[in-house]
Amino acid sequence: MNNPFQLMQMLGNLTQNPMQILSQCGLNVPNNLNNPQEIIQHLLNTGQISQDQVNQAQQMQNNPIFRNLMK
Amino acid sequence: MTYNYPNYYYPNQNLNIQPQMQTQMNQQNQSIQSGFVSVRNEEDARNYPVAPGNSITFMSETEPYVYTKTMGFNQLDRPSFKKYKLVEEPNSVQIQAENEKVDNLSSEKGKAEFDHIWSEIDHLKKEIKSFKNPRPRKTVRKEVSDDE
User: Fold this and answer.
1) Where are chain A's structural domains?
2) Cβ within 8 Å, pair B51-A45
3) What are the structural domain ranges in chain B?
4) Would you say B82 and B68 are in contact if contact means Cβ atoms under 8 Å apart?
5) What is the DSSP letter of B91?
6) Which of B13, B15, B39, B70 has its CA 20 to 30 A from that of A63?
7) Do A40 and B47 touch (CB under 8 A)?
8) What ipTM was assigned to the predicted interfaces of this complex?
9) Which tens digits make up the pLDDT trace of B112-125?
10) Which residues of A, range 9-68, sit inside 8 Å of B by Cβ?
11) Which of A50, A45, A54 is nearest to B52 (CA)?
């Protein structure tokens, strides 16, 4: 996990095939949801993730280092 | 008499660590809940996913606005969205200076200034009236002879 290359690979997989990563994490998402916001809202509504986790993810997204990695 | 017991592993020794970790995690969660979620604009705040029965406060990164999005416990309810504008509160020195200004206006000096302004207004009124009813001008006709 400390290897930046591994982290980049994980981020690449997440952006390319998010549904696969979600299922690997044990999260159930209907196939008709493609919008990331709809997916997160579904996960919140079904109690699969908490509001704190969403907020933490948002904080990570706002981090300039993370933004550079996602470019 | 000494007993040479081997060093056994006591699993209960680690029990003290877990509550500490839990309290740290709880503190982290509380700090996130009480803080603002920073967003780029109003649209980001409107689209931000909120769990049923939760309310999130957003701080705009680009504009002086704060937004709140509240979701009802029923998932079919529409979320309520509120927008608040941040207005700078003047400090106590500025407020005092403004109050002094008002006091000056109500004082005798202020009255004299008012009288001066009223006299100027009267003067302007008279000038406007004179523009409305101009004096008839005498037209001077110049006769031009054909020779010139």
Assistant:
1) 16-70
2) yes
3) 11-85, 92-130
4) yes
5) P
6) B70
7) no
8) 0.72
9) 888 899 999 999 99
10) 37, 40-41, 44-45, 50-52, 54-56, 58-59, 62
11) A45
A44 contacts in B (CB within 8 Å)?
A: 49-52
For the whole model, what pTM was predicted?
0.54
The DSSP string of B106-146 is HSHHHHHHHHHHHHHHHHHHHHHHHHHSPPPPPP-PPP--T
Question: How many Cβ atoms from other residues are within 10 Å of residue A54's Cβ?
Answer: 22
Please report, as a single letter, which amino acid is at residue B117.
I
Look up residue A47 and give its amino acid.
Answer: G
Residue A36 CB contacts under 8 Å (≥ 6 apart), including other chains: A18
Q: Is A21 within 8 Å of A11 (Cβ atoms)?
A: no
What's the N-to-C CA distance of chain B in angstroms?
A: 152
